[in-house]
């Protein structure tokens, strides 16, 4: 599983690390940088998918990949009064623990660390890889520093670096011109194994932004995984319902999560062959997806994503409480904590909901972070809430939600950074 994400000079972070757990919750005021963290994960996901930097940043229409927010030169942190120069770069680094699903069959250490440094290109307005590193435990198994060595085959001048694809794309898949050249190095196998393991893990992420209108649409059969906006919901649910056990789990969660007494689903097709979704209640009422409530569809999509055939290992949900009634949030938290409890799947969610925050269990509390923009700066910092002074105590006496809604977290964080008043003794 991924255990941390470090962002250096990426968007509004100078050098910050997000601690990542089974269920990672990110809170913070508007424009603090929560979605910038999602952008960083998406960037790495694009690298894991083997896309070029131009595709990651600008979009890859045929693969349904949307551009990362902002132009390429907006990913590097703006520095007051300074133009973006070729010396500027941002760096993203992930650490992961070996696990059964992604890495353990490889002969690698317990902790794998991958870092990619990216800089804007001088002329084209694009991006290029400036440096890449792969570590297994404390052993470096790949670094582009070899490019700096004089008189080697790999000595290239900086502008040519843009031609070098990520190690995850070319060495991880043992293809491309670099693989041959690297074969002369005795560690080539370990590099290839490390790159494959990291690429697999980064590739295995999903970023959902559910849109009820997309979920209402009927879908052609064949899709087994949900679209990013919740597309193909009817066919994904139909597939889940072919397994009686999973269908029972799905309906019981939906009964709990919504006031509907859901007994069954129907999936009629129309003359064009598209599958529709109909929810059947115990009293005989049938509700088509077309007139089901937004919240019901959101719950269904969440269930389809987390209980369905999707083989992803990391799920990112923005403002996960959107459209859901606060009285149902405890079930949402319970569902995610249960799904992530064995360490196979990880969920990262941003939220503005104090109610939801109050409901997280002890383990999730340890992986809850607050993002905060320090006063009079454009920079944001990320801190585990549990590390704020007296946070554990106050969580017990007041509840975490109150600490969020009363802006205690920001005040405590500013104070801990030597930048503000003690939240216990405000002036
Ligand atoms: N390259 C950059 N350098 C410095 N700051 C940047 C850069 N790109 C974006 N930002 C800052 O990041 C902010 C946006 O952050 P983000 O979208 O992550 O906020 P958020 O926490 O998700 O807010 P909300 O809760 O409103 O969605 C912008 O307002 C801008 O100040
Ligand atoms: Mg946001």
Question: What labels would you give this structure?
Answer:
427 residues, binds adenosine-5'-triphosphate, Rossmann fold, six-stranded mixed beta sheet, binds magnesium ion, globular, 15 strands
Structure notes:
This protein is α/β, with parallel strands linked by helices and about 425 residues long. It is about 30% helix and about 20% strand. The protein folds into two domains: about 1-205 and about 310-425, Rossmann fold (3-Layer(aba) Sandwich), CATH 3.40.50.300; about 210-310, no CATH class. The chain has helices spanning about 35-50, 55-60, 165-170, 175-180, 190-205, 210-215, 235-240, 245-255, 295-305, 330-340, 355-360, 360-365, 390-400, 400-405, 410-415; strands at about 1-10, 15-20, 25-30, 90-95, 110-120, 125-135, 140-145, 205-210, 260-265, 280, 285-290, 315, 345-350, 370-375, 380-385. The protein has a six-stranded antiparallel β-sheet with strand order 2-1-4-5-6-7. A six-stranded mixed β-sheet has the order 8-12-13-3-14-15, with helices on both faces. Strands 9-10-11 form a three-stranded antiparallel β-sheet. Strand 14 and strand 15 (about 380-385) form a beta hairpin. The longest helix is centred in the middle third of the chain and has 16 residues, at about 190-205. The model is unreliable at about 145-165 and about 170-185 (pLDDT under 50). Magnesium ion binds near residues 34 and 35. The site of adenosine-5'-triphosphate has 15 residues, from helix 1.
């Amino acid at each position: 599983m991924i255990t941390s994400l470090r962002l250096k000079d990426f968007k509004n972070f100078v050098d910050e690390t997000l601690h990542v757990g089974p269920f990672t919750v990110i809170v913070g005021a508007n424009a603090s940088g929560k979605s910038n963290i999602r952008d960083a994960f998406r960037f790495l996901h694009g690298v894991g998918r083997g896309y070029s930097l131009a595709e990651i940043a600008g979009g890859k229409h045929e693969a349904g990949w949307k551009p990362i927010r902002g132009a390429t030169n907006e990913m590097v942190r703006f520095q007051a009064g300074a133009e973006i120069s070729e010396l500027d770069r941002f760096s993203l680094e992930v650490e992961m623990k070996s696990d059964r699903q992604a890495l353990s069959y490889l002969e690698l250490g317990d902790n794998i660390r991958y870092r990619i440094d990216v800089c804007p290109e001088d002329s084209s307005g694009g991006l290029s890889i400036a440096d890449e590193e792969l570590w297994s435990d404390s052993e470096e198994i790949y670094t582009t520093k070899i490019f700096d060595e004089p008189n080697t085959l790999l000595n290239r001048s900086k502008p040519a670096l843009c031609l070098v694809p990520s190690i995850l794309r070319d060495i991880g898949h043992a293809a491309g011109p670099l693989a041959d050249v690297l074969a002369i190095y005795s560690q080539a196998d370990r590099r290839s194994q490390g790159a494959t393991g990291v690429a697999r893990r980064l590739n295995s992420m999903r970023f959902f932004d559910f849109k009820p209108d997309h979920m209402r649409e009927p879908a052609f059969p064949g899709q087994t995984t949900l679209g990013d906006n919740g597309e193909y919901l009817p066919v994904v649910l139909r597939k889940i319902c072919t397994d009686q056990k999973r269908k029972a789990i799905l309906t019981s969660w939906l009964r709990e999560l919504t006031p509907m007494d859901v007994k069954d689903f129907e999936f009629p097709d129309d003359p064009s062959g598209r599958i529709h979704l109909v929810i059947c209640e115990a009293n005989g009422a049938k509700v088509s997806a077309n007139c089901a409530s937004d919240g019901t569809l959101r719950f269904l999509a969440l269930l389809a994503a987390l209980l369905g055939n999707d083989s992803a290992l990391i799920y990112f949900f923005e403002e996960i409480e959107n459209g859901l009634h606060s009285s149902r949030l405890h079930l949402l938290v319970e569902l995610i904590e249960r799904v992530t409890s064995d360490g196979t799947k990880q969920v990262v969610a941003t939220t503005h909901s104090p109610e939801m925050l109050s409901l997280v269990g002890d383990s999730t509390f340890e992986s809850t972070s607050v993002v905060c923009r320090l006063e009079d700066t454009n920079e944001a910092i990320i801190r585990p809430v549990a590390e704020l002074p007296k946070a554990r105590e106050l969580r017990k006496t007041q509840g975490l939600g109150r600490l969020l809604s009363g802006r205690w977290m920001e005040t405590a964080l500013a104070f801990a950074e030597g930048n503000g008043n003690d939240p216990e003794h405000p002036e």
